[in-house]
Design goal:
Blueprint (H helix, E strand, L loop, with lengths): L2 H20 L19 H4 L15 E5 L3 E5 L8 E6 L3 E13 L2 E7 L5 E4 L3 E4 L7
Antiparallel strand pairs: 1-4, 1-7, 2-3, 4-5, 5-6
Length: 135
């Protein structure tokens, strides 16, 4: 692994550590918060409010898994430990993106915040709306 790859992974890991400490509610870790992972009031997400999605958290993006089953890993490369699997059609919350190991010509990986912080190859995640910010 090149020094450049190691440096980008170290920077992303540092950013993850800092943001995990500073923003637990963004990841949906606060059970007392009346808002879900997307920053929407739950009554709005159930169709009972107006302007659905207006309160979307600008720090998160969303994506849909396009692979039949996608390994979500501890690092942005195929050698990272598998943390969990995501199925086709699953909507995921994307915190940020970084360059990592190329997967079929795509070097971008997304850091997902769905319960467990894990990396998924952007090759198999179609973003919804705005592109994720860089880590």
């Amino acid at each position: 692994m090149s020094l450049r790859s190691r440096l980008s992974i170290a920077v992303a890991a540092g950013a993850l550590a800092v943001t995990a400490l500073a923003t637990p509610a963004v990841a949906g870790d606060d059970p007392d918060d009346p808002r879900d992972d997307w920053g929407q009031n739950q009554t709005q997400s159930q169709g009972q409010g107006q302007n659905q999605g207006q309160d979307h958290n600008p720090r998160l993006s969303r994506g849909v898994v396009t692979a039949s089953s996608l390994a979500l890993r501890s690092a942005p490369n195929r050698g990272g430990q598998i943390i969990r699997w995501a199925d086709r059609g699953e909507v995921v919350s994307i915190f940020c993106r970084t360059n990592g190991q190329s997967v079929q010509g795509n070097r971008q990986w997304y850091l997902l915040t769905d319960g467990t912080w894990a990396w998924g190859s952007a090759r198999y995640i179609r973003t919804i709306g705005t592109a994720p910010r860089w880590c």
